[in-house]
Amino acid sequence: MSETVKVPTMAEYMAEGKQPEVLFWVGCAGSFDDRAKKITKAFVKLLHNANVDFAVLGTEESCTGDPAKRAGNEFLFQMQAVTNIEVMNAYEIKKVVTACPHCFNTIKNEYPSLGGEYEVMHHTQFLKSLLDEGRLTVEGGKFKGKRITFHDPCYLGRANNVYEAPRDLLKKLEVELIEMKRCKRNGLCCGAGGAQMFKEPEPGNKDVNIERTEDALETKPDIIAAGCPFCNTMMTDGVKNKEKEDSIEVLDVAELIANAQDL
Amino acid sequence: MQYIPNILFVIALVAGIGYFTKNIRKVIRNIRLGKDVDRSDNKGARWKNMAMIALGQSKMVRRPIAGILHIVVYLGFIIINLEVLEIIIDGIFGTHRVFAPLGSFYDFLIGSFEILALLVLVSVVLFWIRRNVINIRRFKTLKGWPKNDGNIILYFEVVLMTLFLTMNAADLQLQAIGAEHYIKAGAYPVSQYISPLFGGVSEGSLIILERTAWWLHILGILVFLNYLYFSKHLHILLAFPNTFFADLKPKGEFDNLEAVTKEVMLMMDPNADPFAAPAEDEEAGEPEKFGASDVMDLNWAQLLNSYTCTECGRCTSECPANQTGKKLSPRKIMMDTRDRLQEVGANIDKNGSFVDDGKQLLNDYITAEELWACTSCNACVEACPVSISPLSIIMDMRRYLVMEQSAAPSDLNNMMSNIENNGAPWPFNQMDRLNWSNE
Predict the structure, then answer these.
(1) Which residues in chain A have their CB less than 8 angstroms from residue B426's CB?
(2) What pLDDT does residue B121 have?
(3) What is the pLDDT of residues A198-226, one digit of tens each?
């Protein structure tokens, strides 16, 4: 994608003396990872489409500290958290939406006791609320009737008990939603969590993402839907490893909705 | 002379309960070696957890076969133990079937005990087959004491239930021949089929048989009670406090270390004087240790977790790292924690207070390789039928490795220095964070 999308920053809003409806927390993957950037753009298109008054922190955003905390570096985590909280509190942020379950979990659960209290939503929850309010329309379009399986991100599902929002959105796409044998609270990890994304796996006989991709392939899907940029990478790698990348796409829920409408 | 059985009974009872109490006090002392953590909030949710998860077995039935068999044994255990009350009263006062005047209700009670006893026997046999014959990985991977422990518990149950039914069968036969002291009472839906085996036996022999079964049954119960302390079977008691004191926060929320918050706030405070002498009211204690390398660094709820674990292995069977051949097993994390805690407890028993034994939980029990295999996915926490969190121990030990020893894998060190220097786990400039919008 090479088109420019209009993305207002909090600083711009502040300069105009305005407050957006919601802060879109882009996250490191959403900002820098080539694959995840597409998810970010798809979500922004949906926000524009639904006339959501949003802003991003842009260069004032920094890593939430999640991978540092899960790696055991509580110092670095809290330094990141306190810095981010200072920025968000200065802008008097009330509501945050993010397309990354790790950012979602950290800001929602671990920032409050450090002084950062916001209403935090995962983008699938936010899109669902837009849908319920009638601000967003979701149509099947080109995905109508396709076989789709949803991989639950650990930090959205088990960690925060959000299982239905992404599924509700997928059902609206009029797709054939097929569950893997391990789903929802029994969903198997993609292998990226707990800072594993940033290291080589410990010695074993298989990679976790391959195990999980096999779960997904059992459902004979046309598309594997994800709700996390890291799961997306892991599942995409898994599909490539199985040499199925020509027949199976791994797409974020936001991408599916945006693409269905050719946004 | 006629009071000798009563006296022997009281001695056995006092000795059995006394030794058990002594060991339970040790368990409580050992749990208290842990750091403080507040689990006194939201009592309503805590009682509800205990009622649903421990009393109601709600998480056990997520695996229906094991779950239903477990409920049978659990109900049998609780309900048949009502009988123990009668046995104790009879034993102390030399009465026989003291509750018999309850009449038809007594018949109902004894009848249901017998049916439950039979169901327990069947379940226990099935459990034994699952553990020793069928190829179930979470049981097959148990070796040595943990494997024997599981089987010994099943043998105990078989012996106790058999003694109970034998006692009733002999009693029924004695009732039939009108032996003195053996009043006609109770319904015997199971032992009535055993009783004919004793058809031609003399009254004297029947009494010996009935008394032997009665004595072995109650002594067996006392021995079993005292076996708990040495066994994974302690869960029958600790499942209740453990579910009550379980972490109520969302599973994704890891605690923010307060000692770190203090340091971070000081670093962020522009008015803080870095060269200031500590204020006088500040305690000049040892600097706080970050994370856990031994059991004393864990909190008491984590130590209670370790005593509650009954080594069922549901956590390990759900663990993505374990399933893909990594060394990590959440069950082993819990078993190691308990083993080390018992070792520390024995050290305190011997020396009065803990004397450094040159060992610790980290490396001597749990290796860094195990800890680094975890994806923090919470599958183990979700799987545990009694609300144990192996993940919280793994995280506390990672904290020690990273913050006290700087012993993170080098890839993670790169990730962390990226976050420190440019606010992202990858080496991208923070100033480029919004570039995606123009690409």
Answers:
(1) 28, 32-33
(2) 96
(3) 999 999 999 999 999 999 999 999 999 99
- The 10s digit of each residue's pLDDT in A178-190 is 999 999 999 999 9
- The ranges of chain B with pLDDT < 50 are none
B254, closest residue in chain A (CA to CA): A110
Q: Are A250 and A235 in contact (CB under 8 A)?
A: yes
User: Which of 1.25.10, 1.10.10, 1.10.3470, 1.10.1060 would CATH assign to domain B258-276+286-431?
Assistant: 1.10.1060
* Burial state string for A168-198 with b = 16 or more CB within 10 A and e = fewer than 16: bbbebbbbbbeebebbebbbbbbbbbbbbbb
Q: Running DSSP on this structure, what letter comes out for residue A9?
A: B
| Distance of alpha carbon B431 from alpha carbon A3, whole angstroms | 20
Q: Contact at 8 Å (CB) between A192 and A230?
A: yes
- Residue-level pLDDT at A1: 46
Note the pLDDT of residue B199: 84
Q: Do the chains contact at A32 and B433, CB–CB below 8 Å?
A: yes
B393 lies within 8 A of chain A by CB: no
Of A37, A63, A205, the CB nearest to B423: A63
Q: What are phi and psi of B33, to 5 degrees?
A: -70, -20
List the single residue in B375, B436, B439 with the smallest CB-CB distance to A191.
B375
